[in-house]
Structure formats: structure tokens, C-alpha cells
Amino acid sequence: MAQMATTPGAITTPYPTQIGIAIEWAISGDDNLNGQVQVRYRPLGAPDWRTALPLLRIPAGSNGAFSWGNRHAGSLFDLQPGVTYQIELSLSDPDGGAALQVVEASTRALPTVSPGALVRTVTPQNLAAMLAAVQPGEILALQPGSFPGFTLDRDGLPGAPIVIRGQPGVQVNGELGMFFRQDVIIEDLTVNGRIRFNGSDRITIRRCLINASSTQFNGDGIVSFLRAEYAYIVDNEVIGTTAWVEAAMGASGANRGEGIVVTGPGHVIAHNRVRGFRDNISLMEDGGAVDQYSIDIVANELSEAADDAIEADFCFHNCRILRNLVTNAFIPFSSQPGLGGPTYFVRNAAYNVAHVAFKLYRSSVGDVLLHNTVVKAGDALGLYPGVPVQRTYARNNLLIGGPGGTINGFGNGSGRVIAFADLVLAGASLDYNAYGSTTGSFQGRLGPTSFNSLAELRSLTSEVNAVEVSMAAFAAAPIYPGDPLVQHAAQDLRLASGSAAVDSGIVLPGINDGFAGSNPDAGAYELGRALPHYGPRSVDQLHADGFE
After folding, report:
1. pLDDT tier at 243 (50, 70, 90 boundaries)?
2. 180: helix, coil or strand?
3. Which domains does the chain carry?
4. pTM across the whole model
């Protein structure tokens, strides 16, 4: 017998990061899926509440070997590190089961070196002895010179990490390995090889240059192939060897290497510059995916990704892909699949995309697309999974396509503004998005519905507030990247005054607060705002951005 009323269960806030908090409220009932949870939050002791996005309603489901429970889930974004927050959750259901709960959760503090830490001077000659002798809270200062690859076999402690710090002119040639280690900071190193931290918790890797050129390590950069917790990977430059050529395109192309790859919960991957890999930033897939939730991938500068620039596949829930800049990617954003959701893609920008903008494949469920800007050849919003895609939620995105073709055997469409036939409309919601095509037509398909004009899109589908845009929407007048094999520099995709995308969006609490004009703008950038800083930051920017 159907149970329409909601019965609230336990509320959890698993694995907060330095900048985000995941929220899950388990329920039973609500078989007609009309329950809602409104969210407010504030730092503990602050007088005023802030409104956040409502939680996403997620019915129980499964995909292959993975399953998830009946719940509401969502995230708080762009928080301050080391702060305790009060979170007010208000559940309502027309069929019964209203509840109001207030919980507390604390973001993680930024990783820091122990005050007054003992500094041990390390040379290639005494490296082995220093690695064997180092104690929690101490710093190994690698002196200028060439070091072989090495493995750290000792642990730090919370608040007293072991620090391996490079001085100017130091190079590590090979793999820097950590296996099932805890509380280690790696900083300011040049590594000609890779850093691997399999199964290790509370590992910080910052301000390093990784030249991932060694065939011995599969062309990988910074990797953990086994479950790890709370990695903090920031301000690194990771350089691969995959060339931007047609033969490299796609998962089976002539490409190699993962730029940064993790599995497990609570990671932050922010402000890195990564280029020239099969996948520039990736989660593990299938049997390798373990507890992939509460992960922040923020403000990275990514280019020349021959398969995926950001592969958020097998996200269990609350992966937050925010404000990343992607140039020259076969696919900029992948969720193949999302396991119930939410998997958030928010205010990302992508230019010169060879295949599809969002790969929501393998029966993905629960993807949330907000305020993204994509300019690509072929169909603007084209997805061709061949299997149902469920519970997709999209608002305030700006997508422009044009004449398409075939790249290494993969078609990218003909310039339709939407080609998303496999979307299951029940439970999905797309509206307030801006679409365009340089073909001069406005055609497409959303689920079973085809349309041939903006008026038909608005009248026949959920996109009742959609707008039409062109390349003239951008103030900097970037060219249309009609040939994806032409390698481009990053482009400024901020809006021109008077564009149809200006003021065309809808308010999304906690996402577009403080917008200018009568309504938020569509796309990644609000009119008149400075560009975010992508990639590694200076010391002054680190302090200003609040990461450390």
C-alpha cells in the first residue's frame, strides 16, 4: 500500500570539507514525491539566518552494484573553514509528516604546519635516514638538487602533520608514495613523476609542480586509487603528455593519464592548473568507487582533456563541481552515472568542446546543473546515452552550439539547441536556461517532445522561461569554435550588456545571492562582476580567498 505521508528519519552531515557541508535527511513514505525541505543556516551565534537551496528529493534506487535510500539531500556552499554552523531544516508534505529540525555541523579547519616545528635539512645523501627519523609535527626541508622517488612510511598526527617541503631548485624524479598514511603535508615540490597516496587520510598536497611524463606511472599526476579521506589538493600545476589531436579523443583514444584522481569522501580539489591528460580531474569508477561523496572540485583551470576535464562519475551524493574553467575538452563535465544525487555542476565555464557538454550517462540520476556556460561545436545541450536519464534539474545555464561533425568516431550533433531524447520527464525539471545555435535555427528535442522555435520550446516543454542567445551574448566577442581540433586559449565568456541572458534567470538561494538587476543572469558570470580566479593563487590571493 502506498504511503503518501512522510515519516522523518535521521539527519546526517557526513564529511564536511573546509568549504562545504553535505546534508542528508532519511525518510520513509512520501511515495508521491511531493515532500520538500527548506534550508536556512548561520554560523553558530550569528543573529541572522541565510537561506540555502532546498534539499533535493531523492527516492530510493539502485544502479548496478550501488543502491541508495529514500531521502532528501543537498549541500551548503562556499562556507568558511573551521566554523560551526547551525542548519535549520523544515520538512513539509501536503500528505502529512511536517517537521522542523536544527542541527549543527562544523567545516574542517585549513591544514597548518605545527607552530615552532623542528626543521630537518634533507639532502639526497641523507634522505633515507631523515624519512626514517621524522616525527609528527616536524618539517623535512628538501634542499636544492635532484632526489630519487621515495616512500614515506610514517604518520603525522591531527594538528601535528609531517611536512615535506621543497626549497627552490629541488626536483624529485620518480614517485613520491604514501600508502595508508595519515596527516602529511607535501608542499612546494617539483615532481617529475607522480604523487600517490593510496588509502591515506588527511593528506595535503599544495603548490607543487607535477610533470607526469614517466611511462612507468601511466602518465598519472596526483592519485589515490584506494579509499582516502579529507585530501586537500590545492594550487598545484599538473602537466600531462596527451596531445590535443583527433586520435586522442574519447575513452579509447590515444591518450594517457589521470591528472588528479581520488576516491573516498571529504576531499577538496581547488585552484589547480591541469592540462594534457585523458581525464584532468577524476573520481574512480565501477568497483574502484568507494564512498564518493562530500567532495569539492572548485576553481580549477583545466585544458586539453582528451576524455573528461572533470569526471565526477559514481558520485554517491553531494559532489560539488563549482566555478571551474575548461578549455579544449572532449567532454568538460561527466556524471556517468550519478547515484541518486545530488551531483552539482555550478558556475562552470567551458569553451571548445569536441563531443558533449554534460555526459549524464549510464542511467545517471540526480544531476543538478546551475549557471554553467558552454560554447561548443554541434548540439548545444546534446546527450546521447541510449538509456534513461532521471531527475535532472537545470536552471540558469547558457549553452551555445552550431554546425557539428564527427571527432574520432563520435558525433557531436548538428547544431540543435537541445538533443536530450533520453530524459525521463517525470521528476526532471529544466527551465530558465538560455540556448543558442550559430546555424540560425532553433530546433531540438527534450524527452519525447520536438520543437522548432523558442515559442514551441516554451509552450511544449518545461522550459517556459527559456531565452534564445547568440555569440553576441558575450562582451569579449569570442569566435565560435567550429573546429574542435583547433586548440584555443581560454576565453572570457562574460555577458554583454543587453544580452537576452541578462536578468533572464531565477533566484537560487545560496547560489546567486547578491545578483545585480531585476533577476540573476543566465550563465556562469553575473554582468559587471570580475572573473573568478582560476588555477593556482599567489600568497595574497590565498589569504583573500580564505583557503589558507
Report:
1. very high
2. coil
3. 6-106 (2.60.40.10)
4. 0.98
